[in-house]
Design a protein that fits this description.
Elements (H helix, E strand, L loop, with lengths): L1 E10 L4 H19 L3 E3 L14 H6 L7 H13 L2 E8 L10 E7 L5 E6 L25 E3 L2 E5 L8 H9 L4 E6 L7 H16 L2 E8 L8 E3 L5 E4 L5 E8 H10 L15
Parallel strand pairs: 1-2, 1-9, 2-3, 7-8, 8-9
Antiparallel strand pairs: 1-12, 3-4, 4-5, 6-7, 9-10, 10-11
Helix pairs in contact: 1-3
């Protein structure tokens, strides 16, 4: 089965209204020019502030899963008959812990929520501490059945944990979405592409990585096939990239490269 996946590599400035208007433009272009079946937006697409922004401002921008931003994204999916995945700053109603969730939603072409994932492995690395404002989720994503194949999901920093991608494929994922706001810096581009390619090859699955661009994020979004081939890639500016994802390609690769089937997990239980 073949389907058209579009990555919307976007720049955003923390204002959900501006980001929503940019989403409308991106979806219109993706549908008109690429005949998109599925559009993937970056991590924290609804609102993400630069490092150093007061925590109070970051926390105040949060919305619930039925708030105005998510509601409009559902409408956008339904009106354009396209599936959409996007990251948001989810408000948590917990007086004991005022932090938000870094959440990704998957919406189908009828505007219905098909998946919600709260990032579990937080980016407390390279001098940044995501856990200051984000409360981690407590479970990995449960892959969902779609007309395009079974879809898994993890977010950004989690590509550094091979167990997360392996979990998704063990649960049947053919395609793994990776919304991200990958910070730029020395060797970060090299690590980004190497890690994504490794996760695709070792699991013989597609990886669809949608990055932000701008002051903090480097762009370079990429879609990698089960043999580790980059079938679409972006530069450092806002843009759409598109790839045809073919589930028959997964079967073909797994037939000649059965490494996933040949695992002997009882020999290397990792705790």
């Amino acid at each position: 089965m073949k389907s058209r996946f579009v990555v919307a590599q976007m720049e955003q400035n923390g204002d959900p209204e501006i980001n929503l208007e940019n989403a409308r433009k991106a979806v219109a272009e993706a549908v008109e020019y690429y005949h998109a079946d599925f559009i993937v937006f970056p991590e924290c697409f609804m609102s993400l502030y630069p490092a150093g922004t007061p925590h109070e401002k970051q926390l105040a921008s949060a919305q619930t899963l039925d708030g105005p931003f998510a509601t409009e994204m559902k409408k956008l999916a339904k009106d354009n008959h396209v599936w959409i995945a996007f990251g948001m700053n989810e408000k948590v109603d917990n007086p004991a812990d005022p932090r938000n969730h870094n959440t990704t939603m998957i919406i189908d072409s009828e505007g219905e929520v098909k998946g919600v994932y709260r990032k579990t492995h937080l980016y407390d690395a390279f001098g940044y501490k995501e856990s200051d404002t984000i409360c981690p989720g407590d479970k990995l994503f449960d892959p969902i059945d779609t007309p395009f194949g079974k879809i898994g999901l993890f977010v950004c920093y989690e590509v550094r944990f091979p167990e997360v991608a392996r979990d998704q494929v063990l649960k049947g994922a053919d395609i793994i979405l990776m919304p991200t706001a990958w910070a730029s810096g020395p060797l970060k581009s090299h690590q980004f592409k190497t890690l994504i390619t490794a996760r695709a090859i070792e699991n013989t699955a597609y990886i669809v990585a949608a990055d932000q661009v701008g002051v903090n994020s480097m762009g370079e979004s990429i879609i990698v096939d089960p043999m580790g081939v980059a079938v679409a890639s972006a530069g450092e500016t806002p843009q759409l990239i598109c790839a045809t994802i073919d589930t028959d390609r997964i079967k073909q690769v797994r037939a000649k490269l059965p490494s996933f089937k040949d695992r002997r997990p009882y020999l290397y239980l990792v705790k």
